[in-house]
Write a structure and sequence with these properties.
Elements: H1 2-25, H2 28-43, H3 48-64, H4 68-75, H5 84-99, H6 103-118, H7 127-146, H8 150-163, H9 170-183, H10 187-200, H11 207-227
Helix pairs in contact: 1-2, 2-3, 3-4, 3-5, 4-5, 5-6, 5-7, 6-7, 7-8, 8-9, 9-10, 10-11
Amino acid sequence: ASFTGEERQAQAIALHCALQLYFKTDATAWWKKGTVLAQSFVNSAESPRQKQEAVLLAAKIYGDGGQYQQALELLSPYIGGQDALSLSCRFLRCELLTSLGRLDEAIQAYGELAEICGSFHDGQQSQEVVALGDRASYRQGELLYSLGKNREAASAFALYRRHYPAGSYRDAALYFNGEALEKEGETHQAILQHETLLKQHPTSPYVFSSMVGLVDLYKKSKEVKNKA
C-alpha cells in the first residue's frame, strides 16, 4: 500500500511537470505525455472516489488538447450522481459540449445541472455545489444570448438573479439581460437592468458599456413618448 501511494504521488508530480512544460512550450509531445500519465493515474486508482477524481483530471487534460469526444466518453459513467464530484464531471461535460459546438445540448445540460444544484436545501449545499449551480445557470443564459435567442436569454438571466442573488455573475447577468431586452424592443425593461447595474455594481467592468447603452435607450424611450 505504501509503494502504491508513493507511485501515485510520483505520477502526480510527473503529470504536473508534463503539463507545465506543455503550457510553457506549447509542445504537443508534452501534452501526449500528460495524457499517458493521466490515464495511468486513472488505472492505478484504489477507490471509486479516487478513480472519479482521476477521470475528471484526465478529461480536463483531453479537453485542453482538443480531444473533446474522448473526454466526453471518459466522463460518461461518472455524471449520474448528485455529489459535488459527479456534478463537477457534469459541468465539465457541459463545457465540452460547448467546445464541440453542440450548443443546444449544452444549453439543456447547463439548465439541468443548475436545477439539480438549486434543488439542494441551503444547509446541505457545499460551496462547491453552489459555485457549480451559479456558473451553470449563468452559462445557460450566456449561450442563449450568443445564439440570438434573446427572449429566452432574458428569462434565463432573470432566473439566475432570483436563484443566485449573491452570485459571481450578477453584473454580467444584468448587462446582458438589458442587451437582450433591448433587442426584443423592451426599452423600459432594458433601461431598468442597466440602471440597476450602475447602482448595485459601480465598479463592474460592464459599467462603461451600460452607460453607453443607456444613452441610446433614453433616446429610444423619448422617441416612443413623443410618438405617443
